[in-house]
Amino acid sequence: MNLLDTLVKTTSIPDYFRFMNREELEERVREVKARLGKKLFIPGHHYQKDEVFQFADATGDSLKLAQYSAENKDAEAIVFCGVHFMAETADILTAENQTVYLPDMRAGCSMADMADIFQTERAWQELIDLLGETIIPLTYVNSTAAIKAFVGRHHGATVTSSNAEKMVKWALERNKRLLFLPDQHLGRNTAFNLGIKLEEMAVWDPILHRLETRVEIDKIKVILWKGHCSVHENFTVENILQTREQYPEMNIIVHPECRREVVALSDYAGSTNYIIDRIKESKAGSSWAIGTEMNLVKRIIHQYPDKHIVSLNPHMCPCLTMNRIDLPHLVWCLDQIDKGENHHVIKVDAEIAKDAKLALQRMLDLA
User: Fold this and answer.
1) pTM reported for the whole predicted model
2) Cβ contact 211:223 at 8 Å
3) N or C terminus of the chain: which is more exposed, having fewer CB within 10 Å?
């Protein structure tokens, strides 16, 4: 079977599932869940559609869901409702007798795809030639298993948006400089919060294969990979100014994957869980403009009708790749598992998994 045939086989959903109505699809999920019981575990990321999110056995961010999967020893089939890199992390952390599935193999992450292993290895050699053995790599968990493995081999660690400051401190205690992959905005915002000046941060452009810096090379402390979240980068200063004008008393809260100037003008910035908890704990009647993914914003609006909540960008669409998994694909995946067929399996190469786990474990040891 050639590559095209493989892609068609793993992404083309049978018409049977497309033509089922929502009630039939939901009933099929309930039937399979009841039949498989504890052998089936469905983790659901915060950004998933409600039609899928409702069936999640656990909800949260990508790393927490991977940890839940590993802790759930009875689960033989883990149907990860998220994107490819999340399912990879789950496979890395789970046991050999557990199989991780992704209902739609097209569900990826544009940010993770902005740093591939070939670009990274080439950049690393160039940077070592320029700066010597003075660099330690960190990667956001929103990265491929291959990038996590690269970081693990080079004595670095993974980070989340919740613990990024702790991990950047950890890295800079171990070497003079750090390379932060693949999201430049999280890296920049985190380093800035720790007192590192913007001019002490350089950007590595993997497309043009060059280091962009405003100072002499020996003054660089942080090298930021030129990657970004396609959703969070679309929140702008103009969005903030318009919100301030329309709702002067409104609190603006954003994710640190947003641009530096957006974070600087906001009232609060933090991880997805930080945003959820901050709004949950706020007073009834308070007003919030949220700068993060639209499926989550809509869910928060529905959960807290006693608060005035809007998206910071009212024209924002849900993340296109996060939004891939829908009820028909979930049912199709569950139907295959129920029949004992192994399609849509996410399996990380053993050597890559070993090194990636090193990077993950270094972070988890500091938690």
Assistant:
1) 0.93
2) yes
3) N
